[in-house]
Amino acid sequence: MSRWTHALCRACYQVRRPTVAIPHLVVDGEPAMCCSCGNAALPGLYYRDDPKLYKYCGLSHPEEQDDAG
After folding, report:
1. How many CA atoms lie within 13 A of 51 on its CB side?
2. Which residues does 9 contact at the CB level (< 8 Å), separation at least 6?
3. Helix (H) or strand (E) holding 12
4. Is the pTM of this model over 0.90?
5. Are 63 and 35 in contact (CB under 8 A)?
6. CA-to-CA separations, 36 to 6, 46, 69, in angstroms, rounded
């Protein structure tokens, strides 16, 4: 994953994608903290966005390699 991929809770995802009633989830998603609000993220729910907009991921995720350039 790149640092542009963020784990989100359902509430934060709905703020970004209000017209999507049921988001697509990654199978075998691991528990994580929501990069937007700091609450528990929904396992497997990810959103690609500018890392500068997320304060709880520290602009990088420790398990990731930056493949966005």
Report:
1. 14
2. 34, 36, 37, 39, 40, 41, 42, 45
3. helix 10-16
4. no
5. no
6. 8, 11, 22
Residues counted in the chain: 69
Domain chopping of the chain, boundaries? 1-49
pLDDT in tens, 30-45: 888 999 999 999 999 9
Which residue carries 């991929």 as its tokens? Answer: 5
In angstroms, the CA 50 to CA 4 distance is 6
pLDDT at position 58, please?
A: 61
**pLDDT tier, 2 (very low <50, low <70, confident <90, very high otherwise):** confident
Phi, psi of 44 (to 5 degrees): 90, 0
The single residue listed with the structure tokens 């959103």 is 47
